[in-house]
Design brief:
By secondary structure, this protein is α/β, with parallel strands linked by helices. It is built from 15 helices and eleven strands. Strands 1-7-6-5-4-2-3 form a seven-stranded mixed beta sheet, sandwiched between helices. A hairpin with a 2-residue loop joins β8 and β9.
Length: 509
């Protein structure tokens, strides 16, 4: 067959966006070499440069008008690669413990490049056949790791909020006895959703965005271990039914953001079965730990849920961004999301992910997850998660042994603690001492984040301000853990001395 582009009379189109294969190859080879060196340098760099926004803009040469003429691509990529590493916080740094964002697996970096090169729209099977089938397999493998039925439906999304939204909307449709998609939530009694006081703020966003209003959320108190009080849950459901409201959803937390607490998921599942409510588990952080023996037995209760949210970019070490929603009954996803306008001509005998979630146009997020699972295998994933948990427990031991810290919680891979000066030890509950400790540890957090030697975040545990470490990082070693008490003790002493002298705390701790 002749090439329709042949013929001297038809000139080739030339675009400023195009790139010759030789140029692409040269830039790509150089970039991979540069990235290998830059990635190797991360442990020797500060976790964060601690710069101001103006410093970052200056370093990246931002702020000018859009140039009329484009830059040379070789120079542009080389300069931007170096600038990004010079002016970024590194969540892949061995001493990044601040938020629940994992170190990115290198094979996932290649996955993002491959996905962008193929550039499928994974909204329909026709537009992304290979991508759709890979996503289906990745979803099945994730379900298997968690102990969730592999026959479930599932979809890759941007992160925890969106994965939880999928479960929320599936529950709304499944548990409303009227056509809520057509008539809206105002067509029936007041809907009620039940969550623990430690649940992530995604629930407020969902209640707001999807028409229930945030007052529809019932915040159930927690026990001393910061887990949902199941007896209080049952009382609240009964009271709402008596008032004429319609309970429809209970959310169990599989690893809270603040402390890593795991709700009593099997007991919550029993309540949901008895009350005929949808049981959703927010396992965005902790869900993958259900695969390892070190996790609480109650975490494996997520296998009893109607839907589960997990984030591969948290404890599966995929590069940002990717979350995953699992729904036990695949038809519940179609019931919640499927529409078929005349301009769609999709084969309904195959999976079209446009029917399974909120997005129509969808990138190929699943490739980096699938590659990571193939590369590490189930055993490799379990080993990495187990080691993160072990290191967090080792950190708690080291902090207690040091003598200058009070450890509050150790759950999954999160430890919460605070620095306590010698003169306040034993007096932590006094109101004046408590106020001073809160102020001291706030400044300790701020100064440590600016210094860049180690990066942690904060939590409030039973009303007390705490420093918080979360290890979801396959680069972190025992040596990094053992350094933490000394770093914070030195900085804490310096800040305490300055505060007691009545001056400002030193900028770098």
């Amino acid at each position: 067959m002749s090439d329709p582009r042949e013929g001297a009379a038809t000139p080739e189109r030339r675009s400023a966006l195009a790139m010759e294969p030789a140029t692409f190859r040269a830039i790509g080879h150089r970039l991979v070499d540069d990235l290998a060196e830059l990635l190797a340098s991360v442990p020797q760099r500060p976790v964060t440069p601690g710069e101001s926004p103006a410093d970052v803009r200056r370093g990246l040469r931002l702020g000018g008008p859009l140039p009329e003429a484009g830059d040379d691509p070789r120079e542009l990529i080389e300069r931007v690669a170096k600038s990004l590493f010079d002016h970024s916080l590194f969540n892949g740094h061995p001493r990044f413990f601040g938020y629940i964002t994992s170190s990115p697996a290198p094979i996932g970096m290649f996955g993002d490049l491959l996905a962008a090169a193929a550039n499928p729209n994974v909204g329909s099977w026709t537009l992304g056949p290979a991508a759709t089938e890979i996503e289906l397999e990745a979803v099945r493998w994730i379900a298997g790791l968690l102990g969730f039925p592999e026959s479930c439906g599932g979809v890759m999304v941007s992160g925890g909020n969106m994965a939880n939204f999928v479960g929320f909307l599936a529950a709304r449709v499944a548990k409303c006895p009227w056509d809520v998609r057509a008539a809206g939530v105002a067509a029936g009694p007041r809907l009620r959703a039940y969550v623990s006081a430690e649940t992530h703020t995604w629930i407020q966003k969902a209640a707001d965005l999807f028409g229930l209003g945030t007052d529809a959320v019932r915040w159930i108190p927690c026990d001393s271990a910061m887990r949902m009080d199941v007896a209080a849950l049952e009382r609240t459901i009964a009271a709402d039914r008596a008032a004429g409201d319609l309970p429809f959803l209970v959310v169990g937390t599989g690893g809270s953001v603040s402390t890593g607490a795991v709700d009593p998921l099997p007991a919550i599942a029993q309540v949901c079965r008895r009350e005929k409510l949808w049981f959703h588990v927010d396992g965005a952080y902790g869900g993958f730990a259900a695969a390892v023996p070190e996790a609480p037995d109650e975490l494996r209760g997520l296998a009893l849920a109607d839907s589960v949210a997990v984030d591969p970019h948290k404890w599966l070490y995929s590069p940002l961004e990717v979350g995953c929603a699992l729904v036990r009954d695949p038809e519940a996803m179609r019931a919640a999301f499927s529409y078929h306008p005349v301009y769609y001509h999709f084969d309904e005998q195959v999976v079209n992910f446009v029917d399974h979630g909120l997005q129509n146009s969808r990138g190929f997020r699943a490739l980096k997850v699938w590659l990571g699972l193939r590369h590490a295998g189930a055993a490799g994933c379990r080993e990495a998660i187990s080691e993160d948990i072990r290191l967090s427990r080792r950190l708690a031991e080291a902090l207690r042994a040091h003598g200058s810290f009070e450890v509050f919680t150790t759950d999954l891979s999160i430890v919460t603690f605070r620095y306590v000066p010698d003169d306040l030890r034993g007096r932590e509950s006094d109101s004046a001492a408590a106020e001073r400790l809160d102020a001291l540890n706030r400044e300790l957090l701020d100064s440590s984040q600016r210094a860049g030697e180690v990066f942690v975040s904060n939590a409030v545990v039973h009303g007390r301000y705490a420093l918080r470490t979360c290890i979801v990082n396959f680069h972190t070693s025992e040596r990094d853990i053992e350094a933490i008490p000394g770093i914070f003790a030195r900085a804490g002493r310096a800040i305490d001395e300055r505060m007691r002298a009545g001056g400002a705390a030193p900028a770098g701790g």
